[in-house]
Amino acid sequence: MSDSRAVLEAPDVHRALTRIAHEILERTKGAGDVVLLGIPTRGATLARRLGDRIEQFEGVKIPVGSIDITMYRDDLRLRPARPLGRTELPPDGIDGKIVVLVDDVLYSGRTVRAALDALNDLGRPTAVQLATLVDRGHRELPIRADYVGKNLPTAKSEKVKVYVQEIDGRDAVLLMKGDAR
Amino acid sequence: MNRHLISAGDLTKEDALLILDTAEELARVTERSIKKLPTLRGRTVVNLFFEDSTRTRISFEAAAKRLSADVINFSAKGSSVSKGESLKDTALTLEAMGADAVVIRHSASGAPHRLATWVRGSVVNAGDGTHEHPTQALLDAFSMRRRLGGLEGRKVTIVGDVLHSRVARSNVLLLHTLGAEVTLVAPPTLVPVSVGSWPCEVSYDLDAVLPKSDAVMMLRVQKERMNAAYFPSEREYSRRYGLDRDRFAKMPDEAIVMHPGPMNRGMEIAAEVADSARSTIVEQVANGVTIRMAVLYLLLGGETA
Fold first, then answer.
1. In chain A, whose CA is at the least distance from the CA of B303?
2. Closest chain A C-alpha to B1 CA, distance in angstroms
3. Which of A76, A77, A117, B302 is found 20 to 30 A from A19 (Cα to Cα)?
4. What is the pLDDT of residue A17?
5. Whether the predicted pLDDT of B44 surpasses 90
């Protein structure tokens, strides 16, 4: 798309993730009971990166997994059936842990609601927190993030796209102008 | 994907792979303690079984329930069908009850196809006469892919009563779509006339084919359909086309043995072969639930047309 600009470039993304990793360590007092669960596809990649950073900083290896929310979406009937992502829980599960959900963009909050439902079927964490690289506003549910990489004011017509090295070959956050309807 | 699943031949390679990949993710759900997903809440699946079948019906029922659909079981025995109701009237009754999907098993080939023209919901063929059984083929392909790693270029041998087997036809069509090479082995009397138009090879010599097979699928000798003399005696059939220990030893070390069940131990398959570590027979049952979940999700999980 021609009408798009990068709001975060690779170094900005790296700094944001580093800060979030530190914040997780700080708020959870060393991340002892933390499990990072990414929401596929890009949230899962970001969760792995946060896990790596936390290990670098404190030398603790924290469990990282992914949680697919497709089957829990509230808009399934609005579109054709979509392919499923992967749910991969750490071997010790999530019971009694502090689960940090990781997603790339926080928007309506409906994905996070679906993730909370999915978690409910997987176990009973002591607490659930939310980390997101970009919070673009326009919430439709009473949901907020605990860790935010960047607060990005957007118009509803705009699109936010997160690129990650592992999947897209580069790290960046793009804001695309939508058609002015 | 089509709205209905009537023939394995209707599936494109993309459709088939989507179903297998979806099943792969759903298999993880069956491993956890809460096996239920909310996805088909409020949808109704009718199991319409005009022919006896325990495992297929239970498998579809389990699949629908794990996706939170409401399930209505309708078997022809003791129903209005035994009072003379036609398939069409039965279909219209189900339609009036608001069925989102009808899973049909019927002794007449083509019954699901007719049904699809009468109901608004999705029709899933759970076996029609000697025609097709697409979800069985899908679960077989899924079981093979999990054991063998892939299907492209793999050699699959299907042995036995091909003439009466809907499983064989669906498997040939689907495996061909997925890039596997299928060889049918059967006594000449149990090979259908139309086989020339099927995308597969035919052989009458099991011993020659076994050493080149990655997967060997034994079909049940369907005694209930044997109303003519297709072979001299069960003993002779078993000698020439049964998978016993000696034949099993001729297969490559990594090759697997499959059977859609129910099997006649000692007839088409020896007990020790059926129970060996390279037999997927029990897995196939578990995979059946998973693959049917995938089919129901992909047919019913999205927007209604």
1. A77
2. 9
3. A117
4. 97
5. yes
